[in-house]
Specification:
This protein is mainly alpha-helical. The chain contains 14 helices and five strands. The chain folds into three domains: about 60 residues, no CATH class; about 180 residues, Intergrase catalytic core (hpI Integrase, Chain A), CATH 1.10.443.10; about 45 residues, no CATH class. The chain is globular and about 90 Å long.
Amino acid sequence: MLCAGIETFPGIVQESFLDEISGGDLKAFKVYLRSQKTSIGKKIDKRTVYNHFNNVVSFLNTYGRRELIKQTEWPTYEEKKVVAYDPEVLAHLLKFADEDEADVLEFFLGVNFRNGEGAHVEWPDINLRTKEVRVYSKEEKFGWQVKDSEQRNIGINDKLAERLVARHKRYPGNGLVFGNAKGNPDTHLLRIIKRVALKAGLNCGQCVGTHQRKRMSCANAPVCRKWIIHTLRKSWASLQDRIKTDFATIQTELGHSSPLTTRKYLAAQSHNTPRRRKQINAAAALVSQNGMRLSNKNANRANLGIGGNGIHNRTAKNENSIHDPASRRPAAGHPRDDAKEMGEAREDSGCQDWRSDQV
């Protein structure tokens, strides 16, 4: 199967041969990609546009069609910060979910599926004997395919297996596990986590979104951008890392073709691990300890009458005498006075300055 983007590129360009393709064709393809929508009717995000565009450029480079478009004219995207939910917060969230809502939340948290992957899971895809679920493209039936052809099998925990058995009793048959009333993939699973988060009082209170055709604050409506299905996937990766699951297994089950993507998932919560927390606090302690040493050092200097620059502080008498012209003459033993006396002594003895021998 061709990489995403390559199969649609020929339908956009007018040319029939590779050597006829120009930078203008790539610019037109970029515009086309930005107009495309997902299976749930949303425009594909900027990162996906970039990935598809990059696939086509890489394909053309392989056949010698290089430098057709400047790097500055490529699609751009903002690198999203990978975040994960804290286990305590997730436990609190689940307390406010009803049975069907908990089925959805625990499923996505337990198998790390993307939104579209979970929406297209059917009962025959789940093997409750071996406790695993399979994800693969279903183009003929639903016109849907997995991202970058990442077909894989994921193990499910015992608790989730029991929950799925109970759900299958309530919704028997071989259809979709999370289908809508018409038996089609539920394209609104995102609403479930947002609805439960509002009930649990976990919204940030800063977001504004559309609910029932009105612009509303997430303090009063299920529109908080903090709560999305995809973050459950990232939380799965974080939890696996905490229990020391090996990196290769995490990457494989996430379906990442690049280990760099997996590292971003795992780095997201590294600062919350007990080991990392100990390191963070130890680093802060170094500053505090050195600050305390500096304070003690300055206190000792003050007791000895030494300033921060290593020069003896003037006494109150000397500070007051600075306004007395007579006091401006160098004091006995002052370096300038000593130098003058040494110069006069050389003249009296007929000696030359030692530096004259160096000329």
